[in-house]
Specification:
6 helices; globular; mainly alpha
């Protein structure tokens, strides 16, 4: 169950749910009067779900490992706040497809830079013409989706 097939399947499902998350949170935000309210409720529900999952799996952090986390390791929730809030705001204005293709293009561009330098403790993956070409194709896809 830990093989590449499971990882790929999980990421495909996560990607699909991310596309659904945008309009869901946009509708939630609209009903609650602001994207901040919608994002807050979204995070509360997510935190509850994670709490239940952690309890069911009986996972807990180890003291020494927690103390070894660098300061930037604690910032993922802040990135998630910006992600959820900005997508909930953008979907009604740009549409789901344009919003998500812009997100993917930005993710890929910064990912190549992070890979190149081995940032945040990752294994360096040198930038290549093929990787740059892939990003340019994604940017072209953004333009096609936006015009289409």
């Amino acid at each position: 169950m830990n093989g590449p097939f499971f990882a790929i399947a999980l990421l495909v499902v996560a990607g699909a749910l991310t596309a659904i998350q945008g309009p869901s949170n946009a509708r939630l935000s609209n009903g609650l009067g602001s994207v901040v309210n919608g994002a807050f409720v979204s995070f509360v529900i997510g935190a509850l779900a994670l709490g239940i999952l952690a309890a069911a799996l009986q996972v807990k952090p180890e003291g020494q490992e927690v103390r070894s986390i660098p300061w930037w390791g604690w910032l993922g929730g802040l990135y998630g706040c910006l992600f959820v809030t900005s997508i909930a705001w953008a979907v009604p204005r740009l549409g789901v497809a344009t919003t998500m293709t812009l997100v993917v293009a930005a993710q890929m561009a910064i990912s190549v830079v992070l890979d190149h330098y081995g940032a945040f403790g990752t294994t360096p993956q040198p930038t290549s013409l093929a990787r740059i070409g892939g990003i340019l194709l994604i940017v072209g896809g953004v333009l096609l989706v936006r015009r289409g």
